[in-house]
């Protein structure tokens, strides 16, 4: 839990929100083992839109936590398929 919070804060800066570029860097750096690297703008836009629940063009901690939960759930499912 602490690591999830620390990662968010290391990318979100003082305002405790992720912008699109922050999210891309976080995913490509911290989740690259589980999520393909984001190479194109369309993929980043789709992910950002899906998790930006309040449509404020920033990702708050709760929205980030939902992304972490989705990635964790997908990884859990894939481990059972192997």
From TrEMBL:
CDD domains: S-100. Residues 39-74 form the EF-hand domain. GO terms for cellular component: cytoplasm; extracellular space; nucleus. SUPFAM superfamilies: EF-hand (SSF47473). GO terms for biological process: positive regulation of canonical NF-kappaB signal transduction; positive regulation of cell population proliferation. The keyword Ribosomal protein does not apply. PANTHER family: PROTEIN S100-A1-RELATED, S100 CALCIUM-BINDING PROTEIN. This is EF-hand domain-containing protein.
